[in-house]
Design goal:
Layout (H helix, E strand, L loop, with lengths): L6 E3 L1 H12 L3 E4 L6 H12 L6 E4 L3 H14 L3 E5 L1 H6 L1 H9 L5 E6 L13 H4 L7 E4 L3 H15 L8 E6 L8 E3 L4 H8 L26 H31 L6 E4 L6 E5 L4 H13 L4 E6 L1 E3 L3 H8 L4 E6 L10 H12 L5 E6 L9 H15 L8 E2 L5
Parallel strand pairs: 2-3, 2-4, 4-5, 5-7, 6-7, 10-11, 10-13, 13-14, 14-15
Antiparallel strand pairs: 1-8, 6-12, 9-11
Helix pairs in contact: 1-2, 1-7, 3-5, 7-9, 10-13, 11-12
């Protein structure tokens, strides 16, 4: 494989360049911190003639996704980006996009939701969208944000899927921080994603179809929603297949679940996104001290890779799940709910500790990671009950 030039870039720059290389037919978008530089950068690509995309600057995020749905239903390849309150403002349209089986790719800069007002990174916005029928990917680095965005088009447009996909990166930590990256040649990306051939475009007048029809009483609506569930289930295989295909092209690995040191680990942290690096760094230090510890990081969240996570954690005595959002009124936060369910379904007996960390961009430190691993040792010794703990503040 030819040596590639490494350079410095932010996650937002890498996502904008991934979109440029894919060159979608339509992008409709509205700026919002910390996503703005994605669509700002892409608008410049349009203005400079580097892409042939029809760029639609709308008056709101609701209108942006509405325009994307219309373009996708018509038969276009479509992309957009948003964050936080913008994603919340799209709420109505998120369900319509998946229900109409529109393979839109949307980048989300994961950010706290108001109130109180906060522009920094956590997973409150994206976890609020977890039941909307979209595929969901989490990037740890700017490089992964680039790779995930390209893979997302293949998955969304896969004939066995045909659903929208959210490719996400953590606000400011990944969106704005400089990282060491490489980029594939434009033609390599073009060949990988191929030409989009819509299956049921509204503008194919020779083969008229309906979109967004009224579902009559009875179980017609339920049958339709069952097909949507099956399609998102199919995305598991599609993510793995297209991810592996991209890995072979680039030489960068792709796993649905990145499992570090789990083969013999007694204590494991499960975490999404950018703070996995701190967990892994501290785990390495503890390994040097003879501690058997590991880190599990899902790269996709929808569909949820339950079997893969259970397999990675099957030999652990205790597992900590770190959430960057909460599910108020539930006994567990979103990722912890999924992990506990996965363990139960797959016969994993490990004790589980729940933590909420890094809300509103609060620092997630190495000392906190060390505390979590110490807590797991104590839990295995019979101390504590694993109930939710907000890490880094005094309750």
């Amino acid at each position: 494989m030819a040596e590639k030039k490494m350079f410095s870039a932010t996650g937002n720059q890498m996502v904008a360049d991934a979109f440029r290389q894919v060159n979608p037919d339509v992008m409709a978008a509205y700026p919002i911190t910390p996503q703005t530089t994605i669509v700002e950068g892409y608008a410049k690509f349009v203005a400079d003639g580097k892409v042939t995309t029809e760029y639609v600057p709308t008056e709101s995020e609701h209108s942006a996704l509405s325009a994307c749905i219309g373009a996708s239903a018509a038969g276009a390849r479509v992309a957009t980006a948003t964050s936080s309150q913008g994603l919340a403002y799209m709420w109505e349209e998120l369900h319509i996009a998946s229900g109409m089986r529109c393979p839109i790719v949307m980048a989300n800069a994961n950010r706290a939701l108001s109130a109180p007002i906060n522009i920094h990174g956590d997973h409150s916005d994206i976890m609020s969208a977890r039941d909307c029928g979209w595929g969901m990917m989490f990037a740890e680095t700017a490089q992964e944000a680039y790779d995930n965005t390209i893979i997302a088009f293949k998955v969304a447009e896969d004939p066995n899927v045909l659903l929208p996909v959210l490719t996400t990166l953590d606000g400011f930590v990944t969106t704005h921080a400089m990282d060491c990256c490489v980029m594939e040649e434009d033609q390599v990306v073009k060949d990988f994603v191929g030409n989009y051939k819509p299956k049921y475009p509204l503008l194919d007048t020779e083969n008229p179809v309906g979109q967004g029809m009224f579902a009559t009483l009875g179980n017609g609506y339920m049958k339709y929603k069952l097909t949507e569930r099956h399609a998102l289930d199919n995305a598991m295989e599609a993510f793995e297949r297209h991810g592996k295909e991209w890995a072979e092209i680039t030489g960068r690995p792709f796993e649905l679940v990145d499992a570090w040191g789990t083969e013999d680990a007694d204590f494991i942290i499960v975490v999404l996104g950018s703070c996995a690096g701190n967990a892994r760094f501290q785990a390495r230090k503890l390994r040097e001290q003879g501690k058997k510890v590991g880190v599990v990081r899902p790269r996709i969240f929808r569909p949820f890779p339950a079997k893969q996570i259970a397999e990675a954690c099957k030999n652990a005595k205790a597992v900590a799940v770190l959430d960057r959002s909460d599910s108020y009124g539930s006994p567990h936060a979103p990722l912890a709910l999924e992990v506990r369910s996965a363990f139960h379904a797959n016969g994993v007996d490990a004790l589980v500790n729940d933590y909420v960390v890094g809300l509103g961009g609060a620092d997630i430190t190495l000392e906190q990671m060390n505390t979590v691993f110490s807590d797991l040792e104590a839990r295995a010794a019979g101390e504590g009950d694993g109930s939710i703990k907000y890490l880094g503040i005094e309750e």
